[in-house]
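QA checklist item 7 of 12: single-chain prediction sanity check.
[x] sequence parsed
[x] length recorded as 473
[x] structure emitted
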Amino acid sequence: MKICFCISGQVRGESKSLLTLKDQISALLEFAEVTVIFSVWDKSSIKLDGAFWFSQVSRIFEPRMAELIPVSYYGDQFWGNFPKTKMRLLKESSRPVAGEIEGLFPDAIVDVEENNLDLEFDTPKFDKNSIRMLYKRWRCNEIKKKVERNYGEKFDVVVVTRPDLLLHVNLEHLQRSKFKLPKIDEVFVPSANTRDGITNDVLAYGASKAMDDYCSLFYKVAMPSWHGIHKELARHLADVGLSERQAELIQSNGIERGKLLSYEDIKGDNAFIDDLLAHCSNNSEVNPDWSSEERASFYSFVQRKQQDEGLHKDRFYSLIKGDLSLIECNDFSKDRGKYVLDSFLSNIEVLKLTSESAIIDFIPERLRGEKLDRNLKRLFQTKKFQGYVKAQYIIDCFERRDIASLCSDFDVRDVHDVTGDIADKYRDFALELENVDLDSAFKLMKIALSIRPGGPFIKKKLEEYSRKLELEI
């Protein structure tokens, strides 16, 4: 099997990801002939241009610091709020990369390009870094195509990824099963088909022709209609006839992160942050002269303090008074909205609030308001909150040993996002019942498998039960 790794884009961090890549490729050499192609900018850097939202801020700042930055700072002008910090980071992160890559990968093809391209179009794009990424992917793939022409044959598998990805090669996938070469109409990506109209862009692999089509998205970046890399990538895959499949052979273990910034790293660079922390050290009440976004930052600080002191009820009320009452959140599935939802679920789990009505009754009337009501209505409709409610119901059924309810025909597959031990609970209860009520044990183990389809022990026990009961799984 011939595999080509196409690694393109910006080298970031301290090259932990490149060292990891070297080790993973070395292990893969036992199973495949590997070619490595780099197409990178000539110097390393940290991502500071383009729009910055909560998810990007969280990659640069410590969690406690990221939570304090007002929502009004987000967007293209983020670093205008921290100009000195930006200049220092750019200076500290810049280093030549050609020699480093060639030293780690002496047999690789290394294409190094000076970072002097404009890559701007008639219609400005809000995700400029993604446009640069697509250009480098296209360029790297063109080098791959030339290598194939020189060899007179195509690679069996082509992996497209970025130099700061902590990549993992799942050798067990090759060892435990007969690996099937990808088809030309499929592409393997992380988190495949998990969100409608959204495709993960950090990693992809497939047949060589499929990856030619995948990398051709760069041709579309000049079009006036552009809705961001994840939506456009999903749309592009549909346009070129590529079906998403879950990445198993090559997987992502996240993005390499550098040292996260604390308050000490930005002290004196932003008047509001300095004022906020000075105020919080001497006052327990919010400054009424601050904007709603700045007041939300104050309550984020208070929440952390109350969490440290174990004041769970007060912490919940600070979340209510902060983001949920001051910031209109239209999407709790990503960015700052996801952070607020996760904080909300963490709070209500500690307070043992297990339903919408219980939560509403717990909030004092003096804290209620129209914006809070709108935010709560949207939050209650999220899949993650619904999964939490369902999980609490299931846990209650286990505590009451309500076998009939646990065996009822309802979908429990989404609850593992909130409570990862639900599958274990079903599995263990089935094992407990297998010698006294095999029919119920079969139903419980079948539900455990629906939550954790890859569980080998669960599969084995379910097959055993089905043989004894003469039932099909």
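[x] summary fact logged: Residues 128-151 form the longest helix (24 residues).
[ ] second reviewer sign-off
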